[in-house]
Design goal:
The protein is mainly α. Helix 1 packs antiparallel against helix 2, helix 1 runs antiparallel to helix 3 and helix 2 runs parallel beside helix 3. The chain starts with a helix and ends with a helix.
């Protein structure tokens, strides 16, 4: 690979790391806002927390998920790693699919429901069964998102599983 190719890969890696950092930071912000929403006794704070999470789900979570996935795919196909040559890449791809389901999809709908309930009921929304179910889904989604993103970072650093063997690649699906 020539200098131009190495420079392109470095830029892709830089973008991938930036998008991934934004995504992870967003997940931590969701955690902080969820803790704040659970602890507050002020209706305006409760609404602001869920509204803020919903805005993030529509904007930076969506953009950073797309950016991290796209740059990750480009890095895989433009380097020796490939999309399916190494088990650690395949695991990251699975975690990426989970992250997509949780972030731009799950967080969007769960925060939208929380915004609707708190706008209609205020603090009393916390007493509704629908709020409890939605809140449980949101908390679970946040925990899974943080865990899966942290796992992807660790897997990228340690690359714990080696290449698939030649017989693995030749085996029909």
């Amino acid at each position: 690979m020539g200098n131009a190719g190495r420079t392109t890969i470095r830029w892709l890696l830089t973008l991938h790391l930036l998008f991934s950092a934004i995504l992870f930071g967003g997940a931590v912000v969701f955690l902080v806002l969820s803790v704040t929403a659970a602890a507050t006794r002020e209706e305006s704070v409760l609404r602001a927390c869920y509204t803020g999470m919903h805005v993030l789900a529509k904007t930076s979570v969506r953009a950073s998920t797309i950016g991290a996935a796209a740059t990750g795919i480009l890095l895989s196909v433009r380097t020796r790693w490939g999309l399916f040559r190494y088990y650690w890449i395949i695991v990251k791809e699975g975690l990426t699919l989970l992250s997509i389901a949780l972030g731009p999809i799950g967080m969007y709908f769960w925060t939208l429901k929380a915004v609707e309930l708190t706008n209609a009921q205020g603090l009393d929304a916390r007493n509704l069964p629908a709020f409890a179910v939605n809140s449980g889904r949101l908390w679970t989604g946040i925990a899974l998102q943080i865990a899966s993103l942290a796992a992807m970072f660790a897997i990228s650093v340690f690359k714990p599983w080696g290449p698939r063997t030649h017989t693995d690649r030749a085996r029909p699906a």
